[in-house]
Structure to design on (667 residues):
């Protein structure tokens, strides 16, 4: 493993640690007493005090912080205020649902966006280019909840092609086990939010790839590639597109962050039982341990995405690791 | 149309760039013949259309460039009449090019050997082992250790990258290699090494070479024949020693004047003024506004290419005064007056 990856890994650990710390203190600085939902102010002061000691809230903040870190290390996020079950159990299924919704549509959006953007940029000035650029810029500035609702209105209600929400039909999988992810019913439910998310996420890589190709077309190595007698397609796919992918890889962590955060909205509209929806529900119930854990996981997903993007980048550009 | 020894024969070529400001007449009435095994130099100030001419020959003009008339014969086929696919097949296999900025000519994200083999594969099948052997042979020819062939461009120095591009240009043993200002980005010592190597390779392999540069001294050193270009026209062409000894075009005289000859006390002088705007109407001789010999005739009528002896040809109404002019051309005042009279 090169020094580059060592440094990169170390940075990731540092980022995560900073995030954990910020999150710990942020939640404790929020106005209002989170414990109010658990320790009723109506209790005797003595009983309140006992409960505080049980929760370890009598200890100094820094000690609480280390307990928190120690627990995180063994994936102990505490108990949900709402259900009383361990947060880790509550959240793990939800995490998978979010990943299944966000990552495939990101991959589809980036794959399509890069390909279509490259072709459209390469054949500069086509009618399709004008139309697609107009549509993407409009789509990009449309709120995603509005898009989702339009899609539901049209495809689910008007055409009755897709279910309105949820991850499987009610009663199909009472136990919610892994089997449901392999059912046609699940795919049927996934289809519409997947398409909306893909469409929405498509705009950014498409527009970026198009302008990136336009900047690459004038490069000397493209001219040389043409002079070598390569076919037009080969010049596009092996030279122009290959190099134009670099800005896409650089911005991937950012858009991945948006996508994961944006899943809160899509999940809410589609009643998709993912991390985002869980977070919305938990906020409504002041279920602090769940909110905090969901926050944390969203952050971890984003950081992991960044690491993947970096891996991609080094695969794409040999100059990074070698320097 | 072309005699037996000519490899490339450019006839009456006009190229226009379409721009937002209207058409720029980048090439006008270009005639140029490259014979088998010769080294020919193309000189002229930057912006005079050298790269445009080469790109037209290679068939890689940018989308806004248009050939409005003329023919480019490679052997007996007119390249301009070929289908895109037939044209593609002639590229690199028949004519290859060492580009102006070899530093950026290699794709930064691909290994150098892969980029060379890719050029070969575009024209014929080659096995992995043969490809590797070929690259090793080419690297030896240009003087880079074959072990470095699997590197990325950024791991190479400027001179090495230039050599790698030369290796690439040699890969398919083309009839003609074009070198467009191949060493402008390199220091003088590396430049010298590269030219020595190129000359040796040319003699050994027997390809024809077009060397393009704004530095007439380089051409004088390396080429048997010279084409002098000015504002999209070839104003004088001939054997190098004829042109150096007896230039017939005032512009050529000016160019030679601008070169400091080692050991001589002659001060180099630049020609005052600048080339015409290609968007303008451009009547008459394009050099007339800067020419001390210019007369009313020059401003009104394009001078025809006048053939002299030994393949020497000049486009100047007053070429007969050239000898007399050459004697006083080393006096900067001679040039100054022309520009002054233009501005008044
Ligand atoms: N794509 C283009 N569009 C418009 N004008 C161009 C284009 N490429 C070159 N030119 C113009 O054509 C002229 C010749 O350029 P070029 O062939 O590059 O000259 P040289 O190689 O001798 O320096 C210049 O005036 C340049 O500005
Ligand atoms: Mg040039």
């Amino acid at each position: 493993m090169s020094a580059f990856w060592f440094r990169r890994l170390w940075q990731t650990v540092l980022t995560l640690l900073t995030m954990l710390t910020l999150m710990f203190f942020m939640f404790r600085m929020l106005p209002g007493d989170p414990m109010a939902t658990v320790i009723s102010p109506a209790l005797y002061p003595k009983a309140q005090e006992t409960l505080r000691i049980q929760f370890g809230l009598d200890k100094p903040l820094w000690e609480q912080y280390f307990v928190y870190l120690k627990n995180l290390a063994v994936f102990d996020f505490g108990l949900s205020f709402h259900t009383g079950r361990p947060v880790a159990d509550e959240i793990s299924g939800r995490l998978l649902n979010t990943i299944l919704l966000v990552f495939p549509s990101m991959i589809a959006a980036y794959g399509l966006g890069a390909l279509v953007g490259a072709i459209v940029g390469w054949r500069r000035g086509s009618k399709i280019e004008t139309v697609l650029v107009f549509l993407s810029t409009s789509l990009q500035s449309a709120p995603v909840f509005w898009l989702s609702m339009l899609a539901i209105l049209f495809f689910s209600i008007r055409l009755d092609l897709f279910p309105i929400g949820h991850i499987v039909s009610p009663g199909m999988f009472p136990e919610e086990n892994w089997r449901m992810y392999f059912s046609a019913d699940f795919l049927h439910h996934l289809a519409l939010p997947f398409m909306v998310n893909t469409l929405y996420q498509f705009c950014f890589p498409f527009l970026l790839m198009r302008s990136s190709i336009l900047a690459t077309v004038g490069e000397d190595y493209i001219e040389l590639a043409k002079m070598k007698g390569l076919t037009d397609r080969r010049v596009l796919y092996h030279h122009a597109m290959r190099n134009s992918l670099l800005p896409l890889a650089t911005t991937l962590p950012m858009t991945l962050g948006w996508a994961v955060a944006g899943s809160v909205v899509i999940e809410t509209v589609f009643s998709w039982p993912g991390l985002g929806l869980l977070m919305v529900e938990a906020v409504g119930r002041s279920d602090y341990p769940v909110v905090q854990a969901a926050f944390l996981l969203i952050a971890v997903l984003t950081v992991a995405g960044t690491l993947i993007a970096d891996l991609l980048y080094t695969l794409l550009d040999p100059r990074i690791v070698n320097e | 149309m072309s005699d037996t020894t000519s490899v490339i024969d450019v006839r009456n070529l006009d190229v226009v760039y379409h721009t937002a400001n209207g058409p720029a007449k980048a090439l006008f009435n270009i005639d140029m013949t490259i014979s088998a095994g010769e080294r020919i130099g193309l000189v002229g100030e930057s912006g005079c259309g050298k790269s445009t001419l080469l790109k037209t020959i290679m068939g890689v003009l940018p989308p806004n460039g248009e050939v409005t008339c003329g023919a480019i014969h490679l052997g007996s086929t007119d390249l301009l009449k070929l289908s895109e696919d037939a044209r593609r097949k002639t590229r690199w296999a028949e004519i290859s090019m060492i580009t102006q900025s070899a530093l950026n000519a290699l794709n930064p994200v691909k290994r150098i050997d892969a980029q060379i083999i890719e050029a070969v594969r575009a024209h014929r099948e080659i096995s992995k082992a043969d490809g590797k052997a070929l690259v090793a042979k080419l690297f030896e020819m240009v003087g880079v250790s074959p072990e470095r062939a699997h590197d990325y461009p950024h791991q190479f120095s400027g001179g090495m990258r230039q050599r790698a591009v030369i290796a690439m240009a040699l890969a398919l043993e083309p009839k003609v290699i074009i070198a467009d200002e191949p060493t402008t980005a390199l220091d003088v010592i590396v430049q010298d090494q590269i030219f020595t190597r190129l000359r040796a390779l040319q003699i050994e392999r027997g390809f024809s070479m077009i060397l393009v540069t704004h530095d007439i001294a380089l051409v004088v050193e390396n080429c048997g024949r010279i084409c002098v270009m000015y504002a999209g026209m070839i104003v004088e062409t001939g054997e190098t020693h004829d042109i150096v000894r007896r230039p017939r075009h005032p512009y050529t005289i000016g160019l030679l004047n601008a070169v400091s000859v080692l050991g001589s006390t002659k001060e180099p002088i630049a020609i005052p003024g600048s080339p015409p705007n290609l968007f303008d109407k451009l009547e008459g001789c394009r050099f007339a506004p800067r020419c001390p010999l210019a007369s009313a005739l020059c401003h009104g009528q394009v001078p025809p290419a006048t053939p002299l002896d030994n393949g020497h040809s000049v486009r100047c109404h007053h070429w007969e005064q050239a000898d007399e002019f050459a004697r006083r051309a080393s006096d900067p005042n001679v040039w100054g007056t022309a520009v002054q009279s233009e501005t008044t």
In short: The pocket of magnesium ion (ligand 2) is lined by residues B 50-51, 100, 180-181 (CB under 6 Å). The CA atoms of residues 58 and 91 of chain B lie 7 Å apart.
